[in-house]
Amino acid sequence: MSNDIAAARIRRAQQDPAWVRWGLTAFALGVVGLLVVVPVVNVFVQAFAEGFSGYWRNLTGDPDTRHSILLTLTVAPIALAANIVFGVAAAWAVARFDFPGRSLLIALIDLPFAVSPVVAGLMFVLIFGLQGYLGPFLRADGYSAMPYLVSLVVAALFAVPLLLFGPARKHSWLIALTGSALVFAVALFLQQYFEVWPRNESLQIIFATPGLILATAFVTFPFVARELIPIMEAVGPDEELAAVSLGASGWQMFWHVTVPNIKWGLVYGIILCNARAMGEFGAVYVVSGHIAGETDTMPLRIEKLFQEYNLPGSFAVASLLTLLAIFTLIAKAKLERKAPTLARSRAPKMEPPNL
Amino acid sequence: MSIRIHDVSKNFGSFAALDRVSLEVPDGDLLALLGPSGSGKTTLLRIIAGLEVADTGTVLLQGQDITQQSARERNVGFVFQHYALFRHMTVAENVGYGLRVRGTPKPRIAARVDELLKLVRLDGLQGRYPAQLSGGQRQRVALARALAAEPKVLLLDEPFGALDAKVRQELRQWLRTLHKELHVTSIFVTHDQQEAMELADHVVVMHRGRIEQIGSTDEVYERPSTPFVFDFLGDTNVLAAEVRDGHVLLSGAEKPIAVGHTHPGGQVDVYVRPADLRLAEAGGPGVDVRVASVQRTGPIVRASAETVTGAPVTIELPHLHHDVPHFTAGAALRLRLMQFSLYPRVERAAAPATLAAPVLIGRERGRSS
After folding, report:
1. pLDDT value for B261
2. Which of B75, B219, B260, B297 is the most buried (most CB within 10 A)?
3. What is the pLDDT of residues B214-228, one digit of tens each?
4. Helix A259-279 to helix A311-338 angle, to the nearest 10 degrees?
5. pLDDT at B230 over 50
C-alpha cells in the first residue's frame, strides 16, 4: 500500500500531471488538424465537387488553364537547372576553398530567403521593365545583345571544363583563354552570318516567359546550395584528394566521388527547389502581367479562377499543387533517412578486427 | 636516390610550415618523418604527393623534377590518415579505382584486386563497404588501394593514428614485413617515436618546419644531435654541469663523471635517459640523489628522486635488477650515468633548440646493463 503511494509520488515528481500531457497533445493535434489537415482535405473535396469527370474537364477543358500548367512545367525546370548548376558551384566554392568574400557569398546565398518575393519581382521590373534601366534598349533592339550573351555562354562552357578538368599544364590558363576567345569569335560570327536573332525588335523580358524564369530562379536560388554546403563540409576533401592521387582527372573525381557523396542531398535540394519553383506566387505575380494563356503560371491561374468565382476550376488546379506538396513531403521524409551521415560512415563498427 | 627534396619552403599565412627543408631518400627505404604536431611533417608528405604546392624548392622523383606536376601525374601512393576510402564503393571497387581511371580492362583489374587483397590478407571481403569494416581492415584497404597502380613511392600519413593500441602493434609488424616483400620506397609520418623506431630504416626528426636530424634509428637514438631530438625520442633527465679542463663536473659533485674530453669548457646540460641510470660503485663518480618515491609499472620499476641541487631525476630499472632493493623512499644514493649527451647550456625558450650543436657524447658500458 505504502509502496503504491511512493510509486505514485515518484511518478508525480518525474512527470508532468496528466492534464498537462493530454491537454498539450490535444492542443497540438487540434491546431494541426484545424489549420493543416482540414484545409488540405477541403482542397480535394472542392476539386472533386463535380465528380471526377468535372475535375478532368476543369483541368483540361480550359485552354488558359492548360497553358498555365504547361508554362509552369516550362519555367520550373529551367529555373531548377540553373539553380542546380549554381548550387553545386557555390557549395563547392564555399566548402573547398578559402577566398576573400567567402562569408559574404554565404550571406548572399541566403538573400532571396530574406527578401520578400514581391520586392524580388519589383527588382526585375526596375531593371528590365519599360521604365527600367534596360527598358529603352530592350524595346528598341533587344535581340542585338543576344549573340554576345550566347557566345559568352558558349565560350565559358568551353573554358571552364577545360580549366577544371583538363590536364594540368604550365600555361593551361593561357590555352583556355585563347581557346575561349576563338570559340567566342566563331560563335558570334555564326550567329551574325545566319541572322539567328531578329533585328530592331523589342525583346520582352518582363510580362513574358524570360521574366518568369528569372524571378523564379531568384526566389529558389538558395535551396540547392544551402542543402549541399553542410554535406560537402561534413564529407571533407579527403576522398576527392584520394581520387586525384590515384590518378583520376577532375572530371572523373567529380562523377565518381563528389556526386555519389552529395547525391541524396542534391536530390533533396532539387525536390524542395522544385516545389518552391512551381508554387512561387509573389515574385511571379509582379513580373507576369497576368496575360491569360501567355504569362499565367499555375498559382496565378488559381488566383484568377478564384477571383472569377470559378471555385471548382480553381481548386482543381490547386489540387495539383497540393499533390506536389504531399509528394515533396514524403520524398523529404524518405531522403532525410537516406542522406549520408558522417557518424555512420566513419565510426568503426563493433566487430573484432579481422587480422 | 628515389626522392630528392631540395630547399622546400611552405608558408600558411604568416606561419612557416616548412623552412628550407632538404632531404634525400634512398631507393627501397622505409623512412619515418617524426615530429610533434605543427612540425611540418604532414605538409612535407603532402608536398611530395602533390596535394600541397611548395612556395619554393624542388621535388625530384627518381631523378625527374616533379615540382610542376599535379598529384594525378605523379603516380604516388598516398594513404590518408583517416583512409579516405570511397564510402559508396565496395572494397574491390576502392582497391581497383586507380586502375579503373587509367582505363585498365575489367578482368585485369579484378585479378590485380584479388592479388592485392590476398597480400593485405583481406581476401573474401571484396563485396564489403568501408562502413562494414573494422579500423584495421580499412587501413589495409587504403594501403591496397594506394599500391594498386604500382606507385613509385608509397606515402603514409599517420598510418596507425586512428587505431587502438593492440591493432596498431600488429599492423606495425605486418607493414614492416610487407615493406620487405614489396621493397617500394616508403615514407610515413608519425608523432610516435616508438612507432618510428620500430618500423623505419631511417628517421627524420622535424621541429618547427625544420629538420633536426636525419639518421638511422640507432643514430638518432644513440647520438641525438640536438636537445630537442634527445627529448623527443624518450624520457629525459636534464642535469646542470660544467666542463673544466676536459673534466665534466655535475654541479654539486666533487668527482667528474667523465674525463679527457675535448669540450672547450663552460656551462653545459647533461641529458640522460631514466633507463641509463644505475647505482654507482662506492667512491665512484656520479650524481647524489635522494629518492622520493618508487613505483612499479609492469616490468619496469620507476623511481622519482631529487639531486642535492633540487633537480628532479627519474630512474627506470628492470624489475629484477639487483639495484632495485636499494631504491626505497628517502634513501640517499649515488647514481652512475652509463650513457649521456652533453649540450651547451641554452636558456630555455629564449633561443631555438637548433642552435645547439652536438658537442660530446659520453658513453660507458656498465656490467649490469
Report:
1. 66
2. B75
3. 999 999 988 898 999
4. 160
5. yes
CB B306 within 8 A of CB B343: no
Read off the pLDDT of residues B117-138 as tens digits, 9 standing for 90 and up.
998 888 888 899 999 998 889 9
The pLDDT value given to residue B189: 94
Where helices occur in chain A by DSSP H, the ranges are 2-14, 18-32, 38-47, 51-60, 63-96, 102-109, 111-114, 117-128, 135-141, 146-165, 172-193, 209-220, 222-235, 238-245, 250-253, 259-279, 282-288, 298-307, 311-338, 342-346
- Nearest chain A Cα distance for residue B67, angstroms: 11
pLDDT at A344 over 60: no
Average pLDDT over residues A188-207: 79
Sheet holding B360-363, edge to edge: B247-250, B237-244, B266-272, B339-344, B360-363
Of B70, B86, B101, which has the smallest distance from its Cβ to A239's Cβ?
A: B86
DSSP per-residue codes, A135-178: HHHHHHHGGGGHHHHHHHHHHHHHHHHHHHHSPP-TTHHHHHHH
Separation between Cα atoms, residue B192 and residue B169, nearest integer Å: 12
Amino acid at A257: V
Contacts of B88 (CB under 8 A, 6+ apart): A260, A261, B129
What is the rounded distance in angstroms from the CA atom of residue A166 to the CA atom of residue A164? 6
Q: Does A354 touch chain B (CB under 8 A)?
A: yes
| B102 vs A247, A348, A354: nearest CB | A247
Residue of A99, A245, A257 to mutate when probing chain B, most B C-beta within 10 A: A245
Contact list in A for residue B101 (CB cut-off 8 A) is 243, 246-249, 252, 256
Residue B20 CB-density burial (10 A; 0-12 exposed, 13-18 middle, 19+ buried): middle
Highest mean pLDDT among A50-54, B67-71, B130-134, B242-246: B130-134
Comparing CB atoms, the residue among B97, B132, B145 nearest residue A349 is B132
Task: Return the bridge partners of B339, or none.
Answer: B363
Taking contacts as CB-CB distances below 8 angstroms, the residues of chain A near B49 are 245
Cα separation, B174 vs B316, in Å, equals 30
The pLDDT tens digits for B314-340 are: 999 998 888 888 888 888 888 888 888
Q: Per-residue pLDDT averaged across A244-272, rounded?
A: 89
CA distance B172 to chain A (A): 12
Provide the grid cell at B268: 653545459
- CB distance A353–B51 less than 8 Å? no
Q: Is residue B367 pLDDT above 60, yes or no? A: no
Residue B187 bridge partners (DSSP) = B31, B155
- Residue B86: its chain A contacts at CB < 8 A? 239, 242-243, 256-257, 260
Beta-carbon separation of B80 and A242 below 8 A: yes
Q: What is the pLDDT of residue A124?
A: 87
Question: Which of B70, B88, B170 is nearest residue A261 as measured by Cβ atoms?
Answer: B88
The per-residue pLDDT for range B2-11, each reduced to its tens digit, is: 899 999 999 9
Answer yes or no: do B174 and A340 touch at CB < 8 A.
no
In this prediction, residues A243-270 reach a mean pLDDT of: 89
Interface size between A and B, measured as CB pairs under 8 A: 97
Q: Do B185 and B154 meet the contact criterion of CB atoms below 8 Å apart?
A: yes
Q: Which three cell numbers stand for residue B84?
A: 579516405
Q: Confidence band (pLDDT; 50, 70, 90) for A168?
A: low
How far are the Cα atoms of A1, B1, B38, B353, B359 from residue B206, in angstroms, in the given order? 74, 21, 9, 12, 20
Subunit contact B51:A245, Cβ cutoff 8 A: yes
CA dihedral A100, A103, A109, A113 (to 10 degrees): -150
Chain B residue with CA closest to A260: the answer is B88
Residue B82 and residue A245: Cβ atoms within 8 Å? Answer: no
